[in-house]
Amino acid sequence: MLSHGNEKLEVLANIHTHQERTTDPRPSESDAIISEIMGTLPVITIGHNGKVYGILGNENSKATFSLPSPLGSRESLLTGGKIRLSKYVKYNNWILK
Fold this sequence. Notes:
Blueprint: E1 2-4, E2 7-9, E3 14-18, H1 29-37, E4 43-47, E5 52-57, E6 62-66, H2 74-79, H3 85-91
Parallel strand pairs: 3-4
Antiparallel strand pairs: 1-2, 4-5, 5-6
């Protein structure tokens, strides 16, 4: 939960890009650490290859995952569709053992 003045915001995930073409477009070890710091919330990356990836991390392990169609591509994710990323993230059961 984040707050700004009297406003409270629920954080569902971290989403950012991996656009440097000389590096791996998939989530990194640093992304797993961000997930752990956020309480094992998903970290989603939009890769320079046009694909969308996710990772979960905790003190014991990490796991990458693919987003379902149509959320798995940059174009679909950014142009919107019948499935919203926020709903997918909010209503998914994010458990990492």
